[in-house]
Request: fold
Amino acid sequence: MHIRTRFAPSPTGFIHLGNLRSALYPWAFARHNKGDFILRIEDTDLERSTQEAVDVIIEGMSWLGLDLDEGPIYQMQRIDRYREVVKHMLDAGLAYPCYMSEEELNKLRDEQMTNKEKPRYNGLWRPEPGKALPPIPEGILPVIRFKNPIGGSVIWNDAVKGTIEISNDELDDLVIARPDGTPTYNFCVVVDDLDMNITHVIRGDDHVNNTPRQINIMKALGGAPPVYAHLPTVLNDSGEKMSKRNGAMSVRDYQKAGYLPEAILNYLARLGWSHGDAEVFTKEQFVDWFDLESLGRSPAQHNPEKLLWLNHQYIQQADPEKLALAVKPFAHALGIDTESGPHFVQVVGLLKDRANTLIEIAEGAKLFYLPPPNPSAEQLAENIPQAIIPVLKDFIRVLDSSEQSKEAYGAAFKQILAQHQIKMPALAMPVRYALFATTQTPAIDSVLVVLGKDEAIKRLSKVV
Ligand code: GLU
Reply:
């Protein structure tokens, strides 16, 4: 079988990480099986769909490297096709016009509620052999309803939830087209999944209730239902459904906060799927290992600290050249001219081990590119005691004749410490302060390598 999966988001508002996870799994399943992955934008809800949300989805997917074989396909551009299928279903007796008005439907529902029955359409306009239908009211446009099978049940073997059986008695004759002819949501999904030859529908479990209706329509149209895998929801760190209101970040926010796409991908992969106890893995390994059997059965919980930890892992492992490229935009935003001053790749290499995000690296890089603040006389006296000045003078001399390497600078420190019988902090702290007007820097010997001997001597001499 040639595997074909799809991600079918409704571009209605806020796109959080949990939404993108619903793209990741069908993508990985298609890639693992050398199949096709399709993006379908379910934009028929004109009032709630926005171009902004479409952009966030497409950008987010391309940022994570979820490449497409087909699409984006917009449902709004397929309206003619849906109308065609509605017509076919009417012609074939698979669907029928229903003229029941809003008021009649409400009245029916109220009666059913009073009788403690489940509210449902009563099949008044459903044609049956030998049944007389009511006279067609004038001036009323009908909805089109699907003739759901009567009796029996719909059964499917959900790849995540196991066997699910829903009695047909539970299912109404679903409206597939509104009075103005526009097709309804569940119907479009079926037509698309059939037309696009989707073999595996991997989606959020908020669609479990739609599945039996979709399967019935699909079968009526002569199609074979795909395999369904309904993913448990992603909850936020306090166990609530993720939403903008309770502080979920959009995919773009993570990009802006200095996360690496590799880390996000790895994080999302583990949010509801596992492979033994593997926590840090490459995209290739993920694709290689991905299967539907290892999808989690219970809701996944978003864990921002774990994401930060993963980001740190990826920053540490990153190739310095590539990492520097990724940090550059953040550095530029902080006013750093990465083309002047120390070699940017070296600076990033020095800072990456302690950083959790790209922003932290850029912040750290300010030290090497922005002029140090002018300390007051008091601050100077406090951080560079008078007694250390002769030591600094000796240090400058040794530095001047030193080779330009971490080892040589380390040796220079040792020599001066021995000569003056003092301990490392007594010298390193004033040196740091003299160089940067702060005592918070990475290892001082590495800092000297990055800053360069000449610049260091210039700054030390000024203080001395
Ligand atoms: N458009 C639906 C959503 O965004 C998904 C439909 C589907 O995957 O079948 O929740």
Q: What stands out?
A: DSSP finds 19 helices and twelve strands in the chain. The mean pLDDT is 95. Residues 8-10, 42, 189, 203-204, 207 surround glutamic acid (CB under 6 Å).
